[in-house]
Amino acid sequence: MAKFTPQYLKKLEEHLQENGYDVRYEKGNFKNGYCLLESKKLVMVNKFSAMETRCSALLEIINLLESQQLLSNKRQELFAAMENPEPQVVTIPHSSESEH
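and the corresponding structure tokens:
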């Protein structure tokens, strides 16, 4: 397990920023120590939190976003399959002339 250091926190922040999220530290009473505004791609962490709490919050957000992305990709595959179903081959038995 990684130690919760300022360098580790910086790497977590960079990971989120590389994925388009802005990370800010603000004063607030956030239930989980953070607030995630997905529509604005904004992560706010309580600036008075200890280093361990900050790192834990960012790790939790990263895991949440990655699991949502995985689900989103699977959902997109499902919808694509529903829109373009595989053609089904229907075999129609035909009668031969010798049966008549």
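(Above: one complete record from the training split.) The chain has a mean pLDDT of 83.
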